[in-house]
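Take a protein:
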Amino acid sequence: MQGPTADPTPAHRGRRRLRNTAVALALGAAIFTAGAVGLSPDRPSPTVSSASQGRPGHGGERGSVEALREHVQRLPRDPVGWASLGMAYVQQARATADPATYARAQSALQKSLKLQPADNYQAQTGMGALQAARHDFTSALNWAKKATASNPSSPAAHGVLADAYTQLGQYEASFRAVQRMTDLRPDAASLARASYTWELRGETARARELMTRSLKAASATADTSFAHTHLALLALETGDPTTALREAETGLRAAPRDSALLEARARAHAASGNMRQAVDDYTAAIAIAPLPHYLLGLGELQQSQGRREQAEAQYELLRAQERLRAASGAPADVDAILFEADHGRPLRAVAMAEAACRTRPFIAVHDAYAWALHKAGRHAQALAHANQSLALGTRSALFHYHRAKIHQALGDTNAANRDLKRALTIDPHFHPLHAPDAHTTLRRNDATR
């Protein structure tokens, strides 16, 4: 394995000005011959298999919440046991969207730190993962730095470090952390992060290769499900719903109640024109975990079919979630910003995006900010953020569509056509509402030449 730098989480929002593509490509040449992945905090992460190396409980490092609870009941003064339980709660909360589980995670991790205040890298890693899941990436970074200082050889600590750097827009630092994680232990979690690093750079073939390696290295159902989910998403993002459907169904045979796999299958069905199956899978995913991107995906699919009343039911749930989010003072997520821009008040979406960008300068946040500004009529400002969202070379049909509409509003039809063609080449079914509009806009532009 060679090189530096790897980073998580898909194309997101540039709080700070990103390095240009030339820099990204130069880094890419040195990066990995084996991988890196930057994970979105809005989706379950691959299991941090070394979060507490030597995790107690049945099932070894991947002990269940139940087994770990039994362990700390038997050995209540075991700091590693409490740290392992805390990390298990973090994983559970990210999969179920249950805020109470985050509180349980924090309680377990604080118990571990009270029992062992110094050099407790397991609990420090868990606190970093918890803060990342809560979208407090500055705090996540601080905890991850403590964990890597306590144990520079902990792959999981470097994974959390990479995730935080990615969301903070510090991509070079993130790439280095993923490289270090992969060097220490080329397992399912590190190879998944490596995959995402290449995905961020638009190297989908390399990302797919590394995610396939992550799947082969997986020993836990959670890791296997994660790999199948992301292989399905990579296929969708290259316009291949048949492969996406196969990957999702393979994963669901082992984990039939995995909400991320159900959502991936829903999207594959929708791209294939099987709308009834898509609605059924979205509905099943929401019943397990009412995550915002599931609700938005189902609502916009129903809206595209003219089922406005059903779509409004999903949108009302999203509005209720947003009210709770605003009341808690937590930062807005990308899906909330896009929802507000498209189905609410664009000026409010701008304010949400501006606040999010200050604390999470990730390329996807830049894209959401760009779209909110565009919908509010501030097209020149929008273009600057749209360019930042694509600065790493990420292959995203949605990002290109957003920039195309901004170019169109600025009167640059040639630039708009380039981005529209790029979006539809990447994935002709990228969005139930925007993909048809992309086709229509392109035809109209061609007709008026």
Observations:
- The longest helix spans residues 308-328.
- The radius of gyration is 21 Å.
